[in-house]
């Protein structure tokens, strides 16, 4: 089954060119199926790009998903047309009246700031607390993962000497976990961050399980509450050209820009990126939807607690 998306969402036409089957609300209403409701709190500056990246991965499932996009009332995006936000996004206050089978919290370009200095931190904390009683399973990505680990479990973040930038090999620590069903012994994950969380802090917290890590990029996936929360420090959702755009955008504008590791063919930025994470990205999101959302959520969505 495809995703149910708001009519005229830009991602629909973009993904049709990739032969990914999505349907708008008008067609979806003709099917007698209880779709899984997925809420996306999109904190990234380029909203349409992030929407497309996530929809691409969520579409790789036989289940019908209905996607809702959440925005913050305490922050106005500067890089996305206001018309797009008004048409496709709803404030937390409006969506908080509903319950959702799954939720995704994206990263945000604010990782070097202390959490308490972020203008929308109070609203983020309210949303995080709400998700625990209104969502079956929540996936926190990059800054979202660091913020969730800090808010719920007091896990601090640390500045890195240089940006963690590129594609890094990750090792699943327990392949029997359903989230890793079909995974190889090693998988690749894009990273683009200036801060990190550390194994020694996470290991001090009962209920937190590190389930994947890398000798180079560190902790990559943490699971809590039997899969009701996942914290992913990298970006499995990234499109092939995302790091390329970021690298070329920052060249000449910053003095700490390095070539993304293990990314370009022959490590030559004039060559095409070598995509080595796409298969596991699709598998990860499919497993999350299947084993931690679909098989765990009640048929009556109001029973989520």
UniProtKB/TrEMBL annotation:
Transfers an acetyl group from acetyl-CoA to L-homoserine, forming acetyl-L-homoserine. Belongs to the MetA family. The active site is at residues 142, 235, 237. The keyword Acyltransferase applies. GO terms for biological process: L-methionine biosynthetic process from homoserine via O-succinyl-L-homoserine and cystathionine. Keywords: Acyltransferase, Amino-acid biosynthesis, Cytoplasm, Methionine biosynthesis, Transferase. The record marks 192 as: Important for substrate specificity. NCBIfam families: metA. Pathway: Amino-acid biosynthesis; L-methionine biosynthesis via de novo pathway; O-acetyl-L-homoserine from L-homoserine: step 1/1. HAMAP family: MetA_acyltransf. InterPro entries: Class_I_gatase-like, HST_MetA, MetA_family. The record marks 111 as: Important for acyl-CoA specificity. This is Homoserine O-acetyltransferase. One of its GO terms (molecular function) is homoserine O-acetyltransferase activity. GO terms for cellular component: cytoplasm. Gene3D superfamilies: 3.40.50.880. It comes from the Bacteria. The lineage of its organism: Bacteria, Pseudomonadati, Bacteroidota, Bacteroidia, Bacteroidales. Its EC number is 2.3.1.31. Coiled coil: none annotated. It catalyses: L-homoserine + acetyl-CoA = O-acetyl-L-homoserine + CoA. CDD domains: GATase1_HTS. Substrate binds at residues 163, 192, 249. Transmembrane segments: none annotated. It is found in: Cytoplasm. The gene is metA.
């Amino acid at each position: 089954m495809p995703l149910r998306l708001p009519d005229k969402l830009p991602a629909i036409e973009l993904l049709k060119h990739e032969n990914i089957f999505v349907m708008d609300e008008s067609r979806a209403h003709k099917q007698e199926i209880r779709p899984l409701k997925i809420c996306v709190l999109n904190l990234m500056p380029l909203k349409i790009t992030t929407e497309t990246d996530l929809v691409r991965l969520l579409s790789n499932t036989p289940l019908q998903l209905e996607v809702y996009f959440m925005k913050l009332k305490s922050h106005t995006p500067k890089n996305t047309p206001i018309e797009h936000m008004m048409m496709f996004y709803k404030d937390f206050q409006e969506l908080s009246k509903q319950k959702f089978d799954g939720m995704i919290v994206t990263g945000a370009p604010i990782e070097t700031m202390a959490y308490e200095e972020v203008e929308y931190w109070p609203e983020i904390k309210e949303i995080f607390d709400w998700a625990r009683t209104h969502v079956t399973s929540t996936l926190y990505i990059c800054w979202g993962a660091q913020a969730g680990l800090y808010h719920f479990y007091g896990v601090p973040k640390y500045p890195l000497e240089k940006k963690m930038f590129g594609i890094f090999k990750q090792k699943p620590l327990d392949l029997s976990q359903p989230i890793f069903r079909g995974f190889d012994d090693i998988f690749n994950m894009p990273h683009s961050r200036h801060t990190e969380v550390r194994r020694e802090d996470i290991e001090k917290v009962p209920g937190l399980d590190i389930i994947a890590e890398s000798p180079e990029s560190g902790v990559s996936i943490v699971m809590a509450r039997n899969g009701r929360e996942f914290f992913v420090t990298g970006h499995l959702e990234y499109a092939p050209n995302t790091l390329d755009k970021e690298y070329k955008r920052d060249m000449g504008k910053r003095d700490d820009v390095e070539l993304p590791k293990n990314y370009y063919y022959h490590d030559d930025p004039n060559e095409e990126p070598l995509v080595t994470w796409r298969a596991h990205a699709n598998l990860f999101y499919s497993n999350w939807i299947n084993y931690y959302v679909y098989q765990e959520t009640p048929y009556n969505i109001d029973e989520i607690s």
